[in-house]
Amino acid sequence: MKKIAGKSFTGKTAAIVKDPAKVMQPVYDFVEEQLNLGKLGYGELKVSDADAVIRLETNLINLPLQEPTRISKMISDQEQLPVNVYLVMTSPHVNQSGLRIDEVASADDFIGHVGDYAKTMNDWVAEKLAAVQENIAKQAETEAKEAENKPKKAKPKSKK
C-alpha cells in the first residue's frame, strides 16, 4: 500500500464547538489538495482537551485508513472502486465502539465543491464533539456517584 499523505492540526473543544468552520477549514483544504493531486489523503484535528481525533479522509471503503488489513480484505476481489470522502471520529466517548465514520461525498463531487459540503461537515463535527462532551460529563457523574456510594473503610484504631 502506498504511503498516504496526512496532515495533523490541534484544537481545543471550546474553539471547535464555537467555530467548527474556522478550525476545520485547513483539514478540508488539505484533503481537497490531495485529491487534486490524484492522491489519497487525510487531514486530522486532534482535540487536545478531549480524547478525540476528527479526521477527514479519502478511502475506497467505509473503514478508517488506520485499518489497512481490513480494507484489503474487503476490497481484494474488487476490480476498481470509486474514491469517497469520509468524516471519522475516534474517541472512547463518541459511542460504544469508539469510532464513528460517515460518508461525505464521492471524491469527484468533493473536488471544487468543498463549500457545498462545509455546513454539513461542520454540523457533523459539532454534533459528534457535543456527544463526546456529554458522555465525558456522564462518565464523571457516574464515577462520582460510585465513589460516594462506596462504603468507607473504617480507620484502624491506633494502640497507645
Explained architecture:
- The protein has helices spanning 13-18, 20-36, 68-75, 107-110, 114-149, and strands at residues 5-11, 41-47, 52-59, 84-90, 99-106.
- With 160 residues, it is an alpha+beta fold.
| Low-pLDDT regions | none
Query: H/E element string?
Result: EHHEEHEEHH
Report how far the terminal alpha carbons are from each other: 73 Å
In which order are the strands of the major sheet placed? 1-2-3-4-5
What would you call the structural class?
A: alpha+beta
Rg measurement, Å: 21 Å
User: In which range does the helix fraction lie?
Assistant: 40-55%
Biggest sheet: strands, sense, closure? 5 strands, mixed
Morphology: elongated
Short recap of the structure:
The protein has 160 residues and is an alpha+beta fold. The protein has helices at 13-18, 20-36, 68-75, 107-110, 114-149; strands at residues 5-11, 41-47, 52-59, 84-90, 99-106.
Secondary-structure map with pairings?
Blueprint: E1 5-11, H1 13-18, H2 20-36, E2 41-47, E3 52-59, H3 68-75, E4 84-90, E5 99-106, H4 107-110, H5 114-149
Parallel strand pairs: 1-2
Antiparallel strand pairs: 2-3, 3-4, 4-5
Helix pairs in contact: 2-5
